[in-house]
Amino acid sequence: MSQYEVATLKKGLLILDALQEGDMTLQNVIETFSFNKSTAFRLLFTLERMGYVKKIGHYYSLTNKIGALSTPYDAKTNWLSVPPLHELSKETGETAYVGILYGTDVVTAQVVEGPHAIRAHSEVGDRAPVHLSALGKVILAFLEEHKLEEVLKELTLVPKTKNTFADLHLLKEHLKVIRSQGYAVDDEETEMGLRCIATPVFLEKKVIAAIAISGPSTRLNKKKDKAFSKKLIRCSSRISEML
Q1: Per DSSP, what are the bridge partners of residue 25?
Q2: According to the 3-state scheme, what is the secondary structure of the chain?
Q3: Given strand 105-112, what is the order of strands in its sheet?
Q4: Could you tell me which residues come within 8 angstroms of residue 219 by beta carbon, excluding any fewer than 6 positions away?
Q5: 24 strand-pairing partners
Q6: Fewer CB near the last or first residue (10 Å), C or N of the chain?
Q7: Using one digit for the tens of pLDDT, what is the confidence trace for 151-166?
Q8: CA proximity to 140, closest of 156, 151, 127, 155
Q9: What is the pLDDT of residues 160-218, one digit of tens each?
Q10: pTM for the structure as a whole
């Protein structure tokens, strides 16, 4: 396997490719790809929760979301982000992510683990309210105005820590700052002791995703925000160009 391949994502893509040929049961997936039962179930469950497949009886089939996502951001296009994400993780020494907007949540679409024993842990398919994380906030900041209002109208600003933005007016002002500076910071807003920096990814001048690095606040401290944000902006710009 190439050093740039993300095994879990590849398995999910294989299932999506196979479902284009026809419906499959859990047992079909296990036998076709030699996955163990737990792995096959978790992959199908995640794809179902994210709306890519539906289950009727014992059979899984594709939804029309795959076609709908041919623009702006589908799973195969997502594959292009892997090499730059590996380089970003190696350069910063932290775990790197890709996140996409799904309703009022941000969903983790890629993860490249950092080298440290103490690091942030997330898996492909993880999701959280969009206002909690740097990934989500930077996507919100660069959305078209009408789309932003649609999301904020449906979003419940539940605080996760004492630093979470739970006031709509303050969040909107914060998003203006993010848009101006070009990056977002999760300053222990999702979890105390954890910080994250994120930048947007664009396709045809529209934000379609975000990339981020995260780590413990003792290591990824405020003094590193500007230097690391420049690295993130270079990485996200490269991905945007690849798209």
Answers
A1: 59
A2: CCCCCCHHHHHHHHHHHHHCCCCEEHHHHHHHHCCCHHHHHHHHHHHHHCCCEEEECCEEEECCHHHHCCCCCCHHHHHHHHHHHHHHHHHHCCEEEEEEEECCEEEEEEEECCCCCCCCCCCCCCEEECCCCHHHHHHHHHCCHHHHHHHHHHCCCCCCCCCCCCCHHHHHHHHHHHHHHCCEEEECCCCCCEEEEEEEEEECCEEEEEEEEEEECCCCCHHHHHHHHHHHHHHHHHHHHHC
A3: 127-129, 105-112, 95-102, 206-216, 194-203, 184-187
A4: 94, 116, 118
A5: 60
A6: N
A7: 999 899 989 999 999 9
A8: 151
A9: 999 999 999 999 999 999 999 999 999 999 999 999 999 999 988 899 999 999 999 99
A10: 0.68
- Both tokens of 186, joined, read 């999760």
What is the chain's alpha carbon radius of gyration, rounded to the nearest angstrom? 18
130/30 Cα distance (integer angstroms): 34
Q: Which residue has the tokens 């995703």?
A: 209
Question: Could you tell me which of 72, 47, 75, 76 has the C-alpha nearest to residue 62?
Answer: 47
What single letter denotes the amino acid at residue 68? A
Q: What is the CB-side half-sphere exposure of residue 167 using CA atoms within 13 A?
A: 6
Residue in the structure block whose two tokens are 């996507």 = 139
Tell me how long the chain is.
243
Instruction: Report d(CA 158, CA 140) in Å as an integer.
Output: 16
